[in-house]
Amino acid sequence: MENEKIEIGEISKPKGLKGYLKILSYFDDLEVLLERVEEVFLKLGRRVKKHKIEDFYKKKGRVFIVKLSDINDIDTAQILRGVRLLVELKDFYRYYEESDSPVKYIGYRVIDYKTNEILGYIVDVQPMGKQRIFRCVTEDEDKEFFIPIQDEIFKEINRENKEIYIDNKGFNEI
């Protein structure tokens, strides 16, 4: 897990003339994570470059305005449209393990509590209407399935083994 990174958002466009960036977050509570990390990474093709966070604020919903080191004008910011924003995986997990966010379950194995059959792994948390869902993939990663984040579906959560046991009744693979 050393030096591994996870995407947390995407630069949509510049904001103002001084190099601020409008970020579309992949997560609802990104501001809490950004408060706890000092640096983020920009993924430019295969290159990944580290930048210090100088300033940020939440605009609306999942939109954030971020000022990064070495990006000081609109021309530089304009070049970064569509570039992915990343943090180190260790920082991401350290924050989310302490939080109430369902994002902390990314990477957990999903198991049918009646049959003990491994259904797959949680790979993402996505909004769906007013609730959120886990996007999961089967073990061989050839199919996706979705699980609504609702208490009655989850029968047991084993944090030590990173496993979630669910009532599989009614779920279909996509």
List the helices and strands and how they pair.
Elements: E1 5-15, E2 20-25, H1 30-36, E3 39-44, E4 47-60, E5 63-68, H2 74-79, E6 84-88, H3 89-98, E7 109-112, E8 118-128, E9 131-137, E10 144-148, E11 154-158, E12 163-166
Parallel strand pairs: 7-12
Antiparallel strand pairs: 1-2, 1-6, 2-5, 3-4, 3-6, 4-5, 7-8, 8-9, 9-10, 11-12
Notes on the structure:
Helix content is 13%, strand content 48%. A six-stranded antiparallel barrel has the order 1-2-5-4-3-6. It has two domains: 5-98, Elongation Factor Tu (Ef-tu), domain 3, CATH 2.40.30.60; 102-166, PRC-barrel domain (SH3 type barrels), CATH 2.30.30.240. By secondary structure, it is mostly beta strands. It is built from three helices and twelve strands; from the N terminus they run E-E-H-E-E-E-H-E-H-E-E-E-E-E-E.
Please give a quick description of this structure:
The protein is about 15% helix and about 50% strand.
Helix-strand sequence: EEHEEEHEHEEEEEE
Q: What percent of the residues sit in helical stretches (DSSP H or I)?
A: 10-25%
The general outline is elongated
State the total count of DSSP E strands: 12
- Name of the CATH architecture of the largest domain: Beta Barrel
Distance from first to last alpha carbon: 30 Å
Unreliable parts: none
Fill in the keyword field for this structure:
Elongation Factor Tu (Ef-tu), domain 3, single chain, 174 residues, SH3 type barrels, six-stranded mixed beta sheet, 13% helix, mainly beta
